[in-house]
Amino acid sequence: MSASSPATAAAAECGVAKRQATLRLDPDVIDRFRAGGPGWQRRMSAALRKAAGS
């Protein structure tokens, strides 16, 4: 990803550095988040944050 990519610009704008992680999730979980359309990764991150108690 280049330094001028939209994702990098968005992360810099909100001041939050993201870390890449690889994990295996059940297909129905991924499908449910993706069905919500654009922003599904952000919604998944929010759900994980809530589950972690942050």
TrEMBL record:
Domain of life: Bacteria
Pfam family, one: BrnA_antitoxin
Protein name per the record: BrnA antitoxin family protein
